[in-house]
């Protein structure tokens, strides 16, 4: 008799990182539960596997009953839920801290074999940033409930659906200037599918639990990363580095606009909490466990970004064809002979 496939529940499995984990685990032959607040908006994950293998299910990390129901019968649990920006009940405390602890506690109660938790580089109990502080508190809650958990701390993540290069590339459409706060801050961008592969190492039990800091093969300043992005999308923009106090004022003004608009405007541009995070280098610390300990060679930025940033070029997917046509101008034609 054939053995039933193992089951993994992925909270936030339709999100940026979660969908890559779901796809990989479907290829491994596992049944995948994609636990989200709005299952009807996550139906795109179903084709990752055969019929019925990958299914969106209802769960909210702020609710004990739905979390426990989503975990029941699972062999492994992955938590990808967090927020970098508060909105309504989706607060830093509710998701990054309490939500993380709730998932870990319910996983322990249900006798789950392994737990993988996605945190972030910069998680720090002493941080001025509420996001960074609550992520560190969430890590503590996870380890208190599930001591053998694997915790992954990626630097800024890039990939097709990212909110990093895509966001800045979109900004270049609105004027000749690209303003930056924290232009000298170092980042170590990491490819989303590398993070997913690291999570799968934990799911499959190929690597031990503990905290792993995940960064790409190179560290670069935000200013340098933006110039490289501009080169890829073939746009000339003046990159202006703003002082932190200007960024703080901007974040406060945008936050006030969001409050006064009663939700009609959502500040996705810059928050005061993000300004606080930009003051701290976002790179792997010395002595930390890294991709090397997982047997993974991280992917470089240049190998990936052109595959999705081409859409921001003046002629989009036809940019190279258009440029080739321009080079033909002035070339001899058959009528010249």
Question: How much strand content do the residues show?
Answer: 15-25%
What number of structural domains do the residues give? 1
Rough outline: globular
The number of distinct β-strands equals 13
Count of helical regions = 12
Measured on Cα atoms, how large is the radius of gyration? 22 Å
CATH class: Alpha Beta
CA-CA gap between termini: 77 Å
Give a short account of the largest sheet.
7 strands, parallel
Helix content: 25-40%
Query: What's the arrangement of strands in the largest beta sheet?
Result: 3-2-1-4-5-6-11
CATH architecture: 3-Layer(aba) Sandwich
Find the structural class using helix and strand composition: alpha/beta
Q: Can you tell me the residue ranges where pLDDT is under 50 for at least 5 consecutive residues?
A: 333-337
The chain-level mean pLDDT equals 94
CATH level 4 superfamily: NAD(P)-binding Rossmann-like Domain
Question: What is the element string, with H for helices and E for strands?
Answer: EHEEHEHEHEEHEEEHEEHEHHHHH
Could you give a quick summary of the protein structure above?
This protein has 337 residues and is an alpha/beta fold.
Walk me through the topology.
Blueprint: E1 7-11, H1 18-27, E2 31-36, E3 54-58, H2 64-71, E4 76-79, H3 92-109, E5 114-118, H4 130-145, E6 150-154, E7 157-158, H5 165-171, E8 177-181, E9 186-187, E10 190-191, H6 192-203, E11 210-214, E12 220-221, H7 222-233, E13 238-242, H8 244-260, H9 272-277, H10 291-294, H11 306-309, H12 319-328
Parallel strand pairs: 1-2, 1-4, 2-3, 4-5, 5-6, 6-11, 7-10, 8-13
Antiparallel strand pairs: 9-12
Helix pairs in contact: 1-6, 2-3, 3-4
């Amino acid at each position: 008799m054939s053995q039933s496939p193992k089951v993994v529940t992925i909270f936030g499995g339709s999100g940026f990182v979660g969908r890559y984990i779901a796809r990989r685990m479907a290829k491994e032959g596992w049944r995948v539960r994609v636990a989200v607040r709005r299952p009807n908006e996550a139906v795109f994950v179903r084709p990752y596997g055969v019929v019925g293998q990958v299914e969106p299910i209802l769960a909210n990390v702020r609710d004990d009953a739905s979390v426990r129901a989503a975990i029941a019968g699972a062999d492994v649990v992955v938590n990808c839920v967090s927020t970098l920006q508060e909105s309504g009940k989706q607060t830093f405390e509710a998701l990054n801290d309490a939500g993380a602890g709730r998932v870990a506690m319910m996983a322990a109660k249900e006798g789950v074999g392994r737990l993988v938790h996605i945190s972030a580089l910069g998680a720090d109990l002493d941080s001025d940033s509420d996001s960074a502080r609550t992520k560190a508190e969430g890590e503590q809650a996870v380890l208190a409930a599930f001591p053998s958990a694997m915790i992954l701390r990626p630097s800024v993540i890039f990939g097709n659906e990212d909110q990093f290069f895509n966001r800045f590339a979109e900004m270049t459409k609105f004027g000749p200037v690209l303003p930056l706060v924290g232009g000298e801050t170092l980042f170590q961008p990491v490819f989303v599918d590398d993070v997913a592969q690291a999570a799968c190492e934990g799911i499959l039990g190929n690597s031990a639990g503990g905290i792993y800091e995940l960064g790409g093969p190179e560290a670069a300043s935000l200013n340098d990363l933006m110039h490289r992005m501009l080169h890829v999308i073939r746009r000339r923009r003046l990159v202006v580095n703003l002082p932190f106090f200007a960024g703080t004022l901007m974040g406060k003004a945008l936050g006030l606009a969001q409050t006064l608009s009663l939700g009609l405007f959502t500040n996705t541009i810059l928050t005061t909490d993000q300004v606080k995070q930009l003051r701290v280098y976002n790179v792997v610390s010395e002595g930390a466990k890294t991709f090397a300990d997982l047997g993974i060679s991280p992917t470089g930025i240049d190998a990936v970004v052109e595959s999705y940033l081409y859409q921001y070029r003046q002629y989009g997917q036809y940019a190279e064809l258009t440029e080739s046509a321009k080079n033909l101008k002035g070339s001899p034609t058959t009528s010249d002979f």
